[in-house]
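Input.
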Amino acid sequence: QVQLVESGGGLVQPGGSLRLSCAASGIFFRIHTMAWYRQAPGKQRELVASISRDDSTNYADSVKGRFTISRDNAKHTVYLQMNSLKSEDTAVYYCNAGVQNSWSSRSMNYWGQGTQVTVSS
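Output.
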């Protein structure tokens, strides 16, 4: 079984910064693409940023230039550095990962339980 655990959320003022972490644990062969999603109250969950195993990245237009996604494959961890935060960034942020359980298995999608980010003065 694979578990993803997020940390680093909290309350921050507009213009401030937070760094989110998501660590994978359990038995698996390889973690492929990792990503951060977010969901604000009353809204659909949306992709914020993703990163492949070779560190190729993409971002939602709303966070380009402000957020940076990175990963440490040795630690099975993905990070999201969030700068210049706006009230619109307030949401529960969820970690997502494509996980291959063995050399011959298909990749499966896993989700963390989420961490709250609140941007308010």
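DSSP finds no helices and eleven strands in the chain.
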